[in-house]
Amino acid sequence: MKPELLPDGQPIPKIGFGMWKIGGGTTADPAQDAPSLRALHTALETGYTHFDTAEMYAAGHSEELLARAIRESATPREALFITTKVTPAHLGYNDLKRACENSLRRLQTEYIDLYLIHWPGRAPLEESFRALNELHAAGKIRHIGVSNFRLPMLKQSRQLCHSPIATNQVPYSLTDRSYVENGVLDYCVENNILLTAYSPVDEGRLRVGHALKNVAQKYNATPYQIALAWLIQQPGVITIPMSMNPLHITENFQAGEIVLAPEDFEELG
Q: Could you list the residue range(s) of the whole structural domain that residue 174 is in?
């Protein structure tokens, strides 16, 4: 699976491990620690190197569990690419800098590979990017990105960011093409911004129609694997599927080896 390249030339895997529900929902759930750690260890053993978390996930506990799994597996930090996100409530200048420090502490790392604004908030973007630019200059974050940004705010972000915007993380799947229809995908491709597709199989509820079944049978693959392959064969698109199921974690990763033919794209529409 050939990686994509960030604007500075650093590679980033086409398929990463999404961490929503690791450690809980929007609050920490200790009952989820054991299955969450099993999922993270499975992902590390399978070969995932990009892990996508957020301070909003389990109120920061998701970040703590990732740090624990990395430590327990003795995985070198430099072998991994870690993405985390700042919540809309922390987009003010001081709040954002404090949020980043808290994420660094929970992740037990000296730097974050990719730091995203999780959702647009009420604080002026100028204030948010002043903090992000300073954190980048200090080496605490290596790349800056956004999430759930429509075209006007994405364009504004490019103007405010002192380094290239690395990605816009948005919902994108065979059945959700809203960020194609609103022009974001084309804009990202034209401006060397990666589009990170979240909910790539609609959180396990992907509608499996006749065409998807046909293509899956052709490659002896699951429909979900074909849905992931459809995404990552598009230039400038990466994805972060999430699963707690060890089999699905492995299958998602293996989707990166499927090479769809042009006629498959036509059939899938």
A: 11-204+235-243
